[in-house]
Amino acid sequence: MLAIVAYALGVMYTPGPVNLLGLNAGLQGQARASLGFYLGVGLAMLILFLLFGWAGAAWVQDDMLAMVGALGCGYILYLAIKIARSSIDLGAVRQAPRTMRFRDGLVMQLCNPKGVVATLPIATLQFPAVGIHGVSLVLWSLGLAVLAVGAPGSYALVGSLVGRRVADPRVFRGFNLAMAILLAGVALSIGYEHVYRPWVS
């Protein structure tokens, strides 16, 4: 179950459109005023976790788990490589926007491919693999949604604390590399537990 949290952290807390908007809110002194935006992001993630979680329980049967696990591991490794190679354009972040609201966060995260990337492997692969369904699916989805609220919120906090001194993209590069290593470790863990061990037994 630690792999679920590690994967969620690795995907949710890397720079992406929603997190960069949170950073921008902090840089512009709107971190507190944008609380509704972060909550909208969390609700969108809750919706995605529940939808994919219920569908995943129906679609992914025990005999398919190793195959889906292998595909999921490959995808997570691909994502880790993409994150490790990505760069951040801080110039694009610093444009002063209007204050982001709850509806903005909800709609943006529901339409954000990164939201699907974060929820689909967890809900369709990791949840069924450890027997998370029913009430536990709802509780886990709530917990991960709270974690999702913290992603743009933490970026906003960093933006408000550091302000305009954030000018070195090497800081974000180092963060991306750390998250990529975390994701690669999760992929190897899933591969060992849910692909290799069932295959050799």
TrEMBL record:
<feature type="transmembrane region" description="Helical">
    <location>
        <begin position="6"/>
        <end position="23"/>
    </location>
</feature>
<keyword id="KW-0812">Transmembrane</keyword>
<dbReference type="InterPro" id="IPR001123">
    <property type="entry name" value="LeuE-type"/>
</dbReference>
<feature type="transmembrane region" description="Helical">
    <location>
        <begin position="35"/>
        <end position="59"/>
    </location>
</feature>
<feature type="transmembrane region" description="Helical">
    <location>
        <begin position="137"/>
        <end position="162"/>
    </location>
</feature>
<keyword id="KW-0472">Membrane</keyword>
<protein>
    <submittedName>
        <fullName>LysE family translocator</fullName>
    </submittedName>
</protein>
<feature type="transmembrane region" description="Helical">
    <location>
        <begin position="105"/>
        <end position="125"/>
    </location>
</feature>
<keyword id="KW-1133">Transmembrane helix</keyword>
<feature type="transmembrane region" description="Helical">
    <location>
        <begin position="174"/>
        <end position="192"/>
    </location>
</feature>
<feature type="transmembrane region" description="Helical">
    <location>
        <begin position="65"/>
        <end position="84"/>
    </location>
</feature>
<keyword id="KW-1003">Cell membrane</keyword>
<dbReference type="Pfam" id="PF01810">
    <property type="entry name" value="LysE"/>
</dbReference>
